[in-house]
Each structure stands twice: as C-alpha cells, then as structure tokens.
Amino acid sequence: MFRIYGLLLTVGCTLATDGPVRWLDNSCVIETSQGTINLTPLGNTDNTPRFKDVSSTSDQYRYSWNPCLPFNEGTCSNVAVCQSVPDTQSFYMLGVQDNISYQDGTDQSGTIMYHTFGDIERITTIRLTCDPTQEGNLIVTGEQPAQSGKYFFELRSRYACFQEPTTTFLPPTPGAVTASMSPSPNPDIYNVKSIVLLLFTIQISLIILIVMLIIGLTTRRQSTVPEKDTEKSHFAYNSIN
Ligand SMILES: *[C@@H]1O[C@H](CO)[C@@H](O)[C@H](O)[C@H]1NC(C)=O
C-alpha cells in the first residue's frame, strides 16, 4: 500500500519521457530493457559503505552508500544509504537494499531509487552513468529542494554500463524485461559475435577479390591497347612505304 503510493509519487515527480518505474528484487544485478547493470563488484562485503561520508554539493551533510549489500555506520544499521550530520554526529537512514526501484533514462542511462516508508518518506535517486575509465566515483548533490526528503546522487563507473541484453533475438516488447532474467548470457553473445565477425571477414575477402579482378581486367586491357596501336602504326608505316 505504502509502496504503491511511493511509486506513484515517484512516477509523478519524474519526467514523462523516462521509462516506467518498477521495483527490483535485487539491488546487485539490475535487469533492464537496455541491458544488465551489475553493481556487485562495486559493493563492499564487510558491512562498510563503499562510498563513505561523501560531501554534498548543496548541503552541509555527509552521505554514505554501499551498492548491493547493507552496511552499518553510527546509528544506521543494515542500510543502503545513510546521511550523517558532522556537527551533531547524528545519522539518518535513507534507504535499505530491499526497497529499491529502477527507471530507464532517455539517454542510454538509468536511475535506481531507494525508498523509505516511515513517518517521513525519503527517496534517494542515484543516476547511473556509464564511464569505462572509472572504477567508481560518487557525486552527491544532496537534498533538493531542502526539506523535501529527496536526495540525488550520481555514480560514474564502469559498472554502471549496460552489459548486452540476453535476449538478442527477441523484439523489444515490454515482456522482454522478464524474459531477459535468464542467467549465463555469455555463450549466446559469443556465438552472435563470431557469426558477425565471420560474415564481416567473408565480405572483406569478397571485396578484395572483386577489386583484384577489376584491376586485373583493366591492366590486361591497357596492356593490349598499345599492342594494337603498334600494330596499327606498323601497318601505317608499312602502307606508307
Ligand atoms: C520496505 O518496504 C516494506 C514493504 O513495503 C516496508 O514494510 C518497510 O518499512 C520498508 N522499509 C523502509 C526502510 O522503509
């Protein structure tokens, strides 16, 4: 009930051009229509946050986040996101790994959202930006607007990149999201890749062959032309004599 309300709130607050918001069973491996995002390698496994006490660009608080697995910090226990106030040493839970939703962006990106349903509803939106050059960099914008309970982060990481969807040959229907849940995508993708590579090689070989044929034909023609010319000139020479 609270979940549905929170979801509707989120849908209403985001741009209509973005994809639908849907709840995730898993905050580690996120299956999307654009591919799979696997945040597992980025998460600490020792109950500490991977990104700890990151300063915000818009408020005076610090924010910690651990992708995939829960962590403890101060009075935040088993959380996914924790806000701390440096002056008072107080901590506020902003999300747990279980209550997470996902939304496709319009520009080859996606966002995850952590929801809390207590006396105060909070939503932490983390934009996942694919950056193959970075292991993991968290930019914290903080609470916007102030007192809204809406927090914004951006993760720039190679683990925020979409891996190839498992359903390569299925049309992109809404149902394909569920179909792409099947594990071990690698064998199929390798097969498709090698077939494409093979076809490409054959095509290149054909082009080279045709080019060689054309060159061969034109040089033969060119070499026969002077022969005829010399014959003609011989003839002309002979006829003059
Ligand atoms: C997560 O969702 C469940 C079920 O909707 C809810 O009971 C629980 O309070 C939520 N957790 C937080 C931290 O809001």
Topology:
Layout: H1 2-13, E1 21-23, E2 29-32, E3 35-38, E4 51-55, E5 62-65, E6 71-73, E7 76-79, E8 81-85, E9 90-95, E10 100-104, E11 110-117, E12 121-130, E13 137-143, E14 150-157, H2 176-179, H3 186-240
This protein binds 2-acetamido-2-deoxy-beta-D-glucopyranose.
Could you explain the architecture of this structure?
This is MRH domain-containing protein. Keywords: Disulfide bond, Membrane, Signal, Transmembrane, Transmembrane helix, Transport. One of its GO terms (cellular component) is Golgi membrane. It is found in: Endomembrane system. The structure is a single chain. The chain is an alpha+beta fold and about 240 residues long. It has helices spanning about 1-15, 175-180, 185-240; strands spanning about 20-25, 30, 35-40, 50-55, 60-65, 70-75, 75-80, 80-85, 90-95, 100-105, 110-115, 120-130, 135-145, 150-155. A six-stranded mixed β-sheet has the order 1-10-11-12-14-13, with helices on one face. 2-acetamido-2-deoxy-beta-D-glucopyranose (NAG) binds next to helix 1 and strand 11.
Search tags:
single chain, 241 residues, alpha+beta, Cation-dependent Mannose-6-phosphate Receptor, Chain A, 2 domains, six-stranded mixed β-sheet, four-stranded antiparallel β-sheet, 3 helices, 32% strand, elongated, disordered C terminus, binds 2-acetamido-2-deoxy-beta-D-glucopyranose, membrane, transmembrane, signal
